Amino acid sequence: MSSDSSYYVPASSRMPIFMAFGLLLFVLGASFTMNNWGEEDSNAHWLLITSFAVIWGTMFFWFGSVIKENDSGMYSGQLNQSFVWGMAWFIFSEVMFFFAFFLALGYVRLFAVPWLGGEGEKAITNILWPGFEAAWPLLVTPDNEQFPGAHHSMSIPAVSKLHTWLPFWNTLCLITSSGTIALAEAGLRKGNRTAFKLWMVATLTLGYVFVFLQGLEYYEAYTHMGLTLGAGIYGTTFFLLTGFHGFHVCLGAIILTIMTIRGFGGAFSDHDHFGLAAGSWYWHFVDVVWILLVLVVYIF
Amino acid sequence: MSAVIDSHHDDHHHGPAKGFSRWLYTTNHKDIGSMYLWFSLVMLFIGGAMAMVIRAELFEPGSQIVSPEFYNQMVTNHGLIMVFGVIMPAFVGFANWMIPMQIGAPDMALPRLNNLSFWILPVAFGILLSTFFMEGGAPNFGWTFYAPLSTEYAPPTVTFFIFSVHIMGASSIMGSINIITTILNMRAPGMTLMKMPLFVWSWFITAYLLIAVMPVLAGAVTMMLMDIHAGTSFFKAGGGGDPVLFQHIFWFFGHPEVYIMILPAFGIVSHIIETFSRKPIFGYSSMVYAIASIALLSFVVWAHHMFTVGMPIAGELFFMYSTMLIAIPTGVKVFNWLSTMFKGSLTFETPMLFAIAFVALFTIGGLSGIMLAIAPADFQYHDTYFVVAHFHYVLVPGALFSLLAAAYYWIPKWTGKMYDETLGKVHFWMSFISVNLTFFPMHFVGLAGMPRRIPDYAMQFADWNMMVSVGAFLFGISQLLFLFIVLKCIYNGKEATTEVWEGAKDRGFEWTVDSPAPYHTFSSPPSMESLKSSS
Question: What is the ipTM of this complex?
Answer without folding.
Answer: 0.95
